[in-house]
């Protein structure tokens, strides 16, 4: 399982992350079960209206082509650390001195 995770990380580094960085985003692994990988988009990509499309047309397409045994990639959505950090920053900035 660790070898598969390393292969996925390598494919992400080579084929996916550089393209997401162009849009101010990134991707991280959440979990892998039975050939289905769950990922979370980060940075600007985490709140993008096209996040599901990006996951399907970029992340899933590239990873399934590069990694044997991987059959699907699903997007984990919700409030991520990046969004929570930004919310905290905004709330602190609004506090009276």
UniProtKB/TrEMBL annotation:
<dbReference type="Pfam" id="PF01106">
    <property type="entry name" value="NifU"/>
</dbReference>
<dbReference type="GO" id="GO:0016226">
    <property type="term" value="P:iron-sulfur cluster assembly"/>
</dbReference>
<dbReference type="GO" id="GO:0051536">
    <property type="term" value="F:iron-sulfur cluster binding"/>
</dbReference>
<comment type="similarity">
    <text>Belongs to the NifU family.</text>
</comment>
<dbReference type="GO" id="GO:0005506">
    <property type="term" value="F:iron ion binding"/>
</dbReference>
<comment type="function">
    <text>May be involved in the formation or repair of [Fe-S] clusters present in iron-sulfur proteins.</text>
</comment>
<dbReference type="InterPro" id="IPR001075">
    <property type="entry name" value="NIF_FeS_clus_asmbl_NifU_C"/>
</dbReference>
<dbReference type="InterPro" id="IPR034904">
    <property type="entry name" value="FSCA_dom_sf"/>
</dbReference>
<feature type="domain" description="NIF system FeS cluster assembly NifU C-terminal">
    <location>
        <begin position="8"/>
        <end position="73"/>
    </location>
</feature>
<protein>
    <submittedName>
        <fullName>NifU family protein</fullName>
    </submittedName>
</protein>
